[in-house]
Design goal:
- By secondary structure, the chain is an alpha/beta fold.
- Helices cover about 25% and strands about 25% of the residues.
- The two termini are about 25 Å apart.
Length: about 300
């Protein structure tokens, strides 16, 4: 049988899509420019994935990869160089081959923006995090700094404070950019604000112990003791392929999808972090499954929803 579906991206969404595609009778492949697993490869411990009370991110990624490989080929270290649509067919050129298929799933993900300060890379997974929902639980009754001033930073600060984490919100401007409702919650919950300041270094020995904060007006610096730093200055969605194919994007760059993960381009679906939302492993898997099942509609194999 000829190839019917290409899944671009080998994170949780892409791997789940591969499993569900094959089980729905679809001939599919997963193409991943790096190593399968996505961002969970760099997660030290995951405790919110059902069925796994506590597991290293790399171990969970390997389990997912091995499971998906029983159903579909997972082609790692293969980068998509060009994608276009002619008629009802998608033409995909990669660093290793060229393909033509009637259906496509984008599971290309997003990358967290980095502060770019000393200590950030060193302590990643040892106190530096980019996801309060993922890692906040580890710091209950401890001190943490959230860096950022927009809605996401405010929501993360509120979440952590409600979780029992003593939270400080550090922002380089005199006012937060977050919506007033979130700012009101920050005040009500007693989240400490350190405004007109920026983090210039994350310090510690084996793990995060403090952040060096500099006042942007005076240049005065202060060591602020914390056990964790949550960087919340935005994400960069990997939407290049979506753009090339003319898919509708949200104002923030994420791909617009409906309840069945359809994009505005017929035959193309999107799942996982590239669609925004909660950006959790469990939601990515669910979206990948939904996208694969929905793709049956253009393959003459309508799934009985």
């Amino acid at each position: 049988m000829s190839l019917e579906l290409i899944i671009i991206g080998g994170g949780p969404a892409g791997l789940a899509a591969g499993i569900y595609a094959k089980r729905a009778g679809i001939e599919a492949i997963v193409i991943e420019k790096a190593m399968a697993g996505g961002q969970i490869l760099i997660s030290p411990v995951i405790e919110n994935f059902p069925g796994e009370k506590s597991i290293a991110g790399m171990d969970l990624a390997q389990k997912m990869k091995e499971h998906a490989a029983e159903y579909v080929p997972i082609q790692e270290l293969e980068e998509v160089l060009e994608a276009k649509k002619e008629g009802d067919a998608f033409h995909v050129k990669t660093s290793k081959d060229s393909y033509e298929v009637p259906a496509l799933i984008l599971a290309t993900g997003a990358t967290y923006k980095k502060l770019g300060v000393p200590g950030e890379g060193k302590f990643s997974g040892r106190g530096v995090s980019y996801c309060a929902t993922c890692d906040g639980f580890f710091f209950k009754e401890k001190d943490a700094a959230v860096v950022g001033g927009g809605n996401t930073a405010a929501i993360e600060a509120i979440y952590l404070q409600n979780l029992g984490v003593r939270t400080k919100l550090i922002h380089r401007r005199p006012l937060l950019r977050a919506e007033k409702a979130y700012q009101d919650d920050i005040e009500r919950l007693g989240v400490e604000k350190i405004l007109e300041s920026r983090v210039v270094e994350i310090q510690g020995s084996d793990k995060v112990e403090s952040v060096l904060v500099e006042n942007v007006n005076t240049g005065e610096r202060e060591d602020v003791p914390v056990d964790a730093v949550f960087v919340s200055i935005g994400l960069i969605p990997h939407n290049e392929i979506a753009k090339a194919l003319g898919a509708e994007l949200r104002d923030d760059g994420y791909v617009t999808v409906d309840d069945f993960q359809r994009t505005s381009v017929k035959g193309m679906y999107a799942a996982g972090d590239i669609t925004g939302g909660a950006r959790q492993i469990v939601t990515s898997c669910a979206q990948g499954a939904q996208a694969a099942l929905a793709s049956t509609e253009v393959l003459g194999k309508q799934y009985p929803f």
